[in-house]
């Protein structure tokens, strides 16, 4: 195996990594036979590789006597560079071999804001306490992330429609949706009886941060789902802001019912249009097939699904 470098003359020269590895082993072990044993090679192969390297460099690297072998000035100059370099290469190979196979390392995750608010956020503390050597990096985005291109390990999204080279694992059942408003707003404007009544109301709409699209208000009808093109003078791109505006009596909002549990229980918001909205798909974790055996990712997946670690 060889890497390439540009020579001082602008020509491409090849670094003789195999022969440099042999040279480094001889220098460290003090003989050709000991180097051969360390590398699992025949002594004749080691001798041939050393001669090849010396011929390429145009200089002797060792002084050989019947009793010993020692470095020349050129050899000492070379070992000062190759020794640390091969140590670093060895560490890199070992790191590549063990990365993802232990309960340590970094997990980079992409998710929409609602997935953090409704699902992941409440479960992170127990995961971090259980696996303190796993570092979690969160990227909050409503885009369907290009995981390999963005150097991410996994993402969260609604539903299992993903690219063919990805794996999707369901984490939750379907998520209930709801339309809510404050009691004061409903007292002034009345409660909508059917979804089409929303056309006469002020609706606080959500704009996706990445695509710029306005989120649809979808309802379940006898002939299948349909959208209502609601109107209003408020558009936001974060769900917490949208809900806060509803609490201020400024209109109706349409999003996940779990956002409103405490607001409804404490009388700050009221749900309308019961039974007219189908559930949203559940939350799925998706990731490249190559990461199926990645230990930190498997531990997170099992933790989120309520499975106990094995062993």
Write the layout of secondary structure elements.
Blueprint: E1 3-6, E2 12-15, H1 17-29, H2 32-39, H3 43-57, E3 62-64, E4 69-71, H4 73-98, E5 105-111, H5 113-130, E6 134-140, E7 154-158, E8 166-170, E9 177-181, H6 183-189, E10 204-206, E11 217-221, E12 224-228, E13 234-236, H7 239-247, E14 253-256, H8 261-265, E15 270-272, E16 283-288, H9 295-304
Parallel strand pairs: 5-6, 5-7, 10-13
Antiparallel strand pairs: 1-2, 3-4, 7-16, 8-16, 9-14, 9-15, 11-12
Structural class: alpha+beta
The percent of residues in helical segments reads 25-40%
How can the largest sheet be summarized?
5 strands, mixed
Instruction: State the end-to-end CA separation.
Output: 40 Å
What is the chain-wise order of helices and strands?
Answer: EEHHHEEHEHEEEEHEEEEHEHEEH
Q: What is the strand tally?
A: 16
Low-pLDDT residue intervals, each spanning 5 or more residues: 1-12
Radius of gyration: 32 Å
What is the mean predicted local confidence, pLDDT?
85
Strand content: 15-25%
Total DSSP helices: 9
Shape: rod-shaped
């Amino acid at each position: 195996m060889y890497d390439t470098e540009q020579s001082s003359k602008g020509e491409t020269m090849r670094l003789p990594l195999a022969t440099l590895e042999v040279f480094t082993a001889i220098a460290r072990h003090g003989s050709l036979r000991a180097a051969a044993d360390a590398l699992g090679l025949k002594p004749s192969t080691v001798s041939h590789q050393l001669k090849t390297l010396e011929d390429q460099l145009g200089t002797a690297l060792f002084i050989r006597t019947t009793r010993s072998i020692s470095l020349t000035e050129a050899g000492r100059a070379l070992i000062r560079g190759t020794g640390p370099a091969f140590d670093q290469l060895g560490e890199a190979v070992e790191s590549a071999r063990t990365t993802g196979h232990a309960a340590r390392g970094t997990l980079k995750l992409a998710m929409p804001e609602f997935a953090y608010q409704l699902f992941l956020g409440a479960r992170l503390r127990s995961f971090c306490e259980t696996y303190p050597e796993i570092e979690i990096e969160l990227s909050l985005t409503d885009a369907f992330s290009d995981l390999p291109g963005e150097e991410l390990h996994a993402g969260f999204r609604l539903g299992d429609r993903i690219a063919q080279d990805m794996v999707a694992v369901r984490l939750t059942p379907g998520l209930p949706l709801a339309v809510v408003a404050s009691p004061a707003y409903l007292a002034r404007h009345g409660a909508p009886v059917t979804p089409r009544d929303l056309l006469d109301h002020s609706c606080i709409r959500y704009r996706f941060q990445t695509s710029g699209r306005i989120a649809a208000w979808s309802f379940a009808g006898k002939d299948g789902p349909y959208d209502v093109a609601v109107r209003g003078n408020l558009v936001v791109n974060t769900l917490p802001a949208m809900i806060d505006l509803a609490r201020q009596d400024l209109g109706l909002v349409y999003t996940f019912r779990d956002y409103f549990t405490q607001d409804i229980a404490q009388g700050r918001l009221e749900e309308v249009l019961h039974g007219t909205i189908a559930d949203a798909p559940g939350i799925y974790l998706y990731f490249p097939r190559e990461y199926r055996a990645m230990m930190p990712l498997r531990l997170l997946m099992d933790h989120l699904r309520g499975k106990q670690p094995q062993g």
